[in-house]
Design a protein that fits this description.
With about 180 residues, this protein is mainly α. It is about 75% helix and about 0% strand. The protein has one domain.
């Protein structure tokens, strides 16, 4: 009887150790699954933001303030052309600004549960976007300064586009997934 009791106690220790290991593995799996789901939720929004930014950054003769014509043309018609192009690009960006900002704020909220790379990329993208929109909305009387601010804002938006490429699953945000919708 004593041998059976000792044998049963030995098996109980092994079973409890195995159950403990399974519990730890289950907790790790749940944690990884939570990260994966949060990464997907952030990635969906990142894809949406990248679509809008891609339109803003796409060269277009009517909207694009590039190539950089600093200093301004000396003739009145050239100056008006630059001013109208700057105005149209600024108007185009400010019309979509709220939608993008809202999506980025949702991403920052969701990124708290995501993986560390997604968290970092999302925060960096949000800060760069806010800097860019500050420059777009900062207006001065000097046309050259306005143009310089818009070009700097464009550089911030390009950085946001790149950062968001790291803020989610690769299949969702790869260069082929971010190709223009044609």
């Amino acid at each position: 009887m004593t041998g059976d009791h000792a044998s049963l106690a030995a098996w109980a220790e092994v079973v409890l150790a195995a159950l403990g290991i399974l519990t730890i593995l289950g907790a790790i799996w749940v944690w990884i699954e939570r990260w994966r789901i949060a990464n997907l939720r952030v990635g969906r929004r990142a894809y949406r933001v990248r679509r809008v930014l891609r339109l803003w950054l796409k060269p277009h003769p009517a909207f694009d303030p590039l190539p950089d014509p600093l200093p301004l043309p000396t003739d009145g018609e050239g100056t008006m052309s630059v001013l109208s192009r700057l105005y149209l690009w600024r108007k185009w960006v400010t019309e979509g600004e709220d939608e993008v900002q809202e999506a980025l704020e949702e991403m920052v909220d969701l990124a708290g549960e995501a993986g560390p790379f997604v968290r970092r990329a999302t925060r960096a993208a949000y800060l760069r976007f806010m800097r860019g929109t500050d420059l777009v909305n900062a207006r001065t009387e000097d046309v050259a300064q306005n143009q310089a601010k818009l070009l700097a804002a464009r550089a911030h938006f390009e950085a946001v586009f790149k950062e968001l490429g790291r803020a989610g699953p690769r299949a969702l945000l790869s260069p082929t997934a971010a190709a223009p919708d044609e």
